[in-house]
Hints:
It is a single chain. The chain is α/β, with parallel strands linked by helices. The chain has two domains: 10-347, no CATH class; 389-510, no CATH class. It has helices at 2-9, 12-32, 40-49, 62-74, 78-81, 83-102, 107-119, 121-126, 133-153, 158-172, 176-188, 199-221, 225-237, 243-254, 259-271, 279-294, 306-323, 329-344, 354-364, 381-384, 389-401, 405-408, 418-427, 442-446, 463-467, 503-506; strands at residues 411-415, 436-438, 455-459, 470-479, 491-499. A five-stranded mixed sheet has the order 2-1-3-5-4. Helix 23 (418-427) links the parallel strand 1 (411-415) and strand 2 (436-438). The radius of gyration is 25 Å and the shape is globular.
Amino acid sequence: MQNESWLKSVSKNDFFVPIVFALLKLNVHLLANGGYGFFRDELYYIACGEKLDFGYVDHPPVVALVTKLSRLLFGDSLFSLRLFPALAGAAVVFLTGLIVRELGGKKFAQVLGCLAVIISPVFLATGNFMSMNPFDHLFWSLSALLMIRILKTENTKLWLVLGVVLGIGLHNKHSVFFFGFGLLAGLVLTTARKHLFTLELWLGVITAFIIFLPHLIWQFVHGFPSIEFIRNASLYKNISLSPLEFLMGQLVEIHVFLFFILLFGLIFFLFLKPAKPYRAFGWMYIAIFGLFLLTSAKTYYIAPIYPLMFAGGSVALERGIKKWDLRWLKPAILAFLCGGGLLSAPLVLPVLPVQTVIKYTEFLGLSVPRSENHAMGQLPQHYADMFGWEELTRSVNDVFKALPPEDRDKCGIFAQNYGEAGALDFFGREYCLPAAISGHNNYWLWGPRHYTGEIMIVIGGDRTDYEEIFESVEQAGLFRHDYVMPYENNLPLFVCRDLKVSIEELWPRVKHYD
Length: 514
């Protein structure tokens, strides 16, 4: 009955601002999401979508399923593939507006909260290509809204709904565990701890576990590869950030112009009287931030909680402006944020010519924080990984077509990583190239296919290494591109013949999860 009365009390005007700004967010991405080319991970998710499963080495199943569904419904264009992420990003803006309303905010607070999410670089970037992240932000925001309803109405039946949302969210990205960790900390440290003694909360936990169970079974059957993946990535690939670097990275991820809204959000949840029922959210943010700070996490890991914090900050600012009669601040704040958003947007949205982006980034002296231990090229990694894949496929095809017909029939292609392998599998269809294999992440689990190793085209690597395992090694090509990551540039293309051991015996040696 409480939920029915809540829905009846919501007028069309309550939805006006969230809908308008959600449509604005959607249109931004519809205009920008065809820029540059396919992102490395998108090509990998396309390959995963061709082999649907309950899990993968480096991610749960939802993103592969959504990618497959997107291709079935809309085709293979960049615009089509990136439609669902754009819709997810728009939904986050809409939910932010609803969260503001539930916290007691009026129209200005809704406008401010929604605008903050729209201009924030981390949300602009993730809403513009297929990945787990836009859906992760959606699950966190929906979970936050449900938690507010639980704390506000004492409707404990909503714990079951929250359990469903979190269970599905875990099938998208394991980071939903951090939401649970932060929520537990928030409940324990506030009067909301009484919910820990309700049956419905634990039924919600059980519901989430049951929904997530198929992925856990997949992990068990495959030897928990995600644990090995996380360990290797932490040790060998990801940059270990100092606390100061992590803190400074937040300013770039959320936008330095939005820091004051975040700060007001934390003050709102922790100290202001109107937010007393929601104290748990302040401690939730502190717990999650502290955990990421101590574990040298990537700077964008904490991003899913920012719509909630922006909502709280917007309500606090609106109340302060009204209390002190500072109405002139409203247009000033909105103009300030719009200007900052326009200034930073080209850093994360592919809307400018490449050379212009390079000059613009140098002019501003800003870039998206690095998260991996790789040398950088002319472009930041999130842009560099959108270049070179079609050209690499054409280079490999030139080598493949130069082989005698009898060799082509038994030739395989070995790639160093899932980006190269995914590109060859996707773009190689046009040239009828054989399917690619790789030792990287889930490509290793998929095995060496039907290849015998009698003749292989191998991308990149060291010739002397290949001479140890093949009878004959010949460099037959070289891939170059101005804008790719340095480790993807100047790649020799080898034709290797007559593997000295069976490919099944060799396969465990090429495995690398990171």
